[in-house]
Task: inverse folding
């Protein structure tokens, strides 16, 4: 798969606004996604697809196609099968078979990032996350809340978030949280990012460039966390990679896995 394995922010840009594609790449987001689905009306679908394909070339730039149960989605998939695309997002995925079809048509070099946006999809989350070619799974919070008939609140999405995090952890792929839709409430965004990070989410999607800095600030480890991880690595090595007391707590292999992820994230932040 070509999509980056370690990413923490993902910015959507409307497919019918090609003048924004370069701005999205320059925004500082780890990944940028040209959206052919929700952001584009029916009359603009074909033109947006052509513009998106013409813009491809940067490994951080992918495309969200239309759902595979739609004519536009199938047209998107076939059009992209001959491109050098790092990853695509597939909306409204409800079964592993959809991923298997996309993987067979696109080939093994294009990473697949499905969105789980329905109760049926959530029930199949473990199979979807473990399907071939997956480079992450995202929660589509707005559609999921809409199916439940409720507001896109923390309580309404908590069960879905928990299941997606566990499915991704079992499949060893990144979990991506739904975007924060209040464009001006940066404090609310920071609080939500902190909560999803504590749950185990690897990344947060955003719909506005000014949200990216907030996501990175919260998601990425602090200098103190990186220093502690380095000290833990040294202590564990000195103990011959056996269990050892560290900062008043037991340090052993499962704990070191978390510290090593912090170090990997710290190296990315410095890159």
Result:
């Amino acid at each position: 798969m070509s999509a980056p394995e370690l990413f923490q922010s993902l910015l959507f840009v409307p497919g019918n606004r090609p003048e924004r594609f370069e701005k999205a790449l320059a925004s500082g987001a780890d990944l940028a996604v040209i959206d052919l689905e929700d952001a584009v009306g029916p009359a603009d679908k074909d033109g947006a697809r052509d513009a998106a394909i013409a813009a491809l070339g940067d490994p951080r730039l992918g495309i969200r196609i239309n759902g595979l149960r739609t004519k536009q989605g199938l047209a998107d998939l076939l059009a992209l099968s001959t491109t050098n695309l790092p990853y695509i997002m597939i909306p409204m995925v409800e079964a592993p078979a959809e991923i298997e079809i996309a993987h067979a048509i696109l080939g093994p070099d294009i990473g697949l990032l499905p969105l789980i946006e329905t109760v049926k999809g959530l029930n199949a989350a473990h199979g979807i996350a473990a399907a071939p070619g997956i480079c992450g799974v995202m929660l589509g919070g707005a559609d999921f809340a809409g199916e439940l008939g409720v507001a896109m609140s923390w309580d309404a999405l908590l069960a879905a978030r928990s299941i997606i995090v566990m499915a991704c952890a079992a499949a060893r792929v990144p979990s991506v949280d739904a975007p924060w839709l209040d464009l001006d409430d940066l404090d609310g965004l920071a609080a939500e990012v902190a909560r999803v990070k504590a749950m185990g989410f690897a990344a947060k999607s955003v719909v506005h460039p000014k949200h990216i800095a907030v996501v990175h600030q919260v998601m990425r480890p602090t200098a103190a966390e990186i220093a502690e991880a380095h000290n833990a690595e040294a202590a564990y090595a000195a103990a011959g990679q056996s269990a050892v007391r560290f900062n008043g707590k037991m340090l052993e292999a499962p704990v070191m896995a978390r510290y090593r992820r912090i170090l990997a994230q710290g190296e990315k932040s410095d890159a």
User: Anything to note?
Assistant: The mean pLDDT is 94.
